[in-house]
Amino acid sequence: MDPHNGTGTVEFLFLGLSDDPQVQPLLFCLFLSMYLVTITGNLLIILAVCSSSHLHTPMYFFLSILSMTDIGFTSTTVPKVIWDIHTQRKTISHSGCLAQLSLFYIFGCLDCSLLTVMAYDRFVAICHPLHYPIIMNPRLCSLLLLASVCISLLDSQIHVLMMLQLTFCAHVEIPHFFCDIPQLLRLSCGDTSTDNLLMYFIAAIFGGVPVSGILYSYSRIVSSVLRVSSKGGRSKAFSTCGFHLSVVCLFYGTAIGVYFSSAMSDSPRKEAVTSVMYTMVVPMLNPFLYSLRNKDIKRAFQKLLTLT
Question: Is the pTM higher than 0.70?
Answer without folding.
Answer: yes
